[in-house]
Amino acid sequence: MKQIMPFLAIIAILIIVAILISSLYNYRLKKQILENGGMNENVQRIMNKLSGGSDPLKWGLILLSGGIGLIVLEYVPYHADESPLPYGVEAVFLAAGFLAYYFLVKKPHADK
Question: Coiled-coil stretches, from where to where (predicted)?
């Protein structure tokens, strides 16, 4: 476990940097679009996708399910040094959070 922690820390830092860079470029793109003044339906749809209106819901569900997974791990017996069980349990709870978000946000298809 001690050997994997520096690796996970580096991965977390890289993910944070990638999110910051992505947010910066989304901001610059929106600013350029607004400065050029070309606002039609397609541009508005792109702007809405860039703003990510349901991001707080997504991260709230993911953090909630991750926290519940950690609480469940407190009550599940396992050997911490040799068992991959905690990773699997946490992955299942995080996946459940993603699926809950997907089913909440998914728009039903209109029947023709």
Answer: none
Instruction: Give the span between the Cα atoms of 53 and 24, in whole angstroms.
Output: 17
Using the Cα atoms of residue 70, residue 76, residue 80 and residue 83 in order, give the sign of their dihedral.
negative
Is residue 82 domain-shared with residue 45, that is, in the same domain? Answer: no
- 111 and 58 within one domain: yes
Spatial distance between the Cα atoms of 92 and 98, rounded to a whole number of angstroms: 10
> In terms of residue numbers, what domain contains 26?
1-52
User: Which has more confidence, 111 or 82?
Assistant: 82
Residues 6+ apart with CB under 8 A from 16: none
